[in-house]
Amino acid sequence: MSELQSSNEIIKRSQQNSHVIYDVFLMGSNKVHPYHKGDIHGLISDIPVALVNCIEKANTLSSDIDTVIAEVTQDFIDRHVPVLWKIWPLGEPHHLSKCLEHYGYINAGIELAMSCDLTAIEDMDEAQAPLAIEKMSNDIHQQHFKDIFQKANGTDPLLAQFFVDLLATNTSSTLETYIGYAGSQHVTTLSVLYAHGVAGIYNIGTPASQARKGYATAITRFAMQQAKAKGYRYATLQSTPIGYNLYQRLGFQSHGEVQQYIYEPE
After folding, report:
1. CA angle centred on 31, ends 43 and 152, rounded to 5°
2. Are 214 and 130 contacting, i.e. CB atoms less than 8 angstroms apart?
3. Other C-beta atoms within 10 Å of 207: how many?
4. For the segment 201-247, what is each residue's pLDDT rounded down to a tens digit?
5. Which domains, from first to last, does the chain contain?
6. For burial by CB atoms within 10 Å, which of 7, 66, 162, 254 has the most?
7. pTM of the prediction?
8. Calpha distance 88→57 (Å, rounded)
9. Do 166 and 204 touch, CB atoms closer than 8 A?
10. Phi and psi at residue 16, to the nearest 5°
11. What angle do CA 229, 207, 213 make, to 5 degrees?
């Protein structure tokens, strides 16, 4: 894929890639709907979970921001669901975080927008990898994904099943999900989305009981190798600060913070 010339371009492609993940939500479920209000874009549903009630892109004039936040927030209040508002490094206006706090949004932490130049990584010796990695393609894989996703994220079983159903109904060749096995145990999972010129890595999860054994590293390296083999130069992901060192060791670098703010209706 073509070379990206700047950090800002990588951030832009990473954000565009994440928008396509939302399209998967919309194609695979009649419970989640697109949300648009002017240049505000995200998802809205009747499921009381912030992950499927979120604002992913917001570019609006500073003079309009108070009105926009009030109207958007009310739309989610009317559905009795929380809303997660993400502020990407290139988002505007620049004082959006303070405006959200004024309206009662709580700082929910940050994610780091990261990328890796895949031409700089060494090929992995699969014989030395601690995992057998399989592409999700059947009901057993789906059950294993659900089990890992639920344990790794402390997720409600219904939400975990929601994600399984989305992935099971996905027919796009641009989204692939993998399960990692240590012997007979399913221990880690990952999805990779090929869109907007980058390979976006998502859903990296390992249960606490299987942590610190190199499984997340192994499955991420596998996804990076797959993307490189397909001709992609850049892989992107959004990492919590806890995961930063792991991904830095794999060759990823941070391009800025994705701030997250959440509003919980009373």
Report:
1. 75
2. yes
3. 18
4. 999 999 999 999 999 999 999 999 999 999 999 999 999 999 999 99
5. 7-112+259-263 (no CATH), 116-254 (3.40.630.30)
6. 162
7. 0.89
8. 8
9. no
10. -65, -40
11. 65
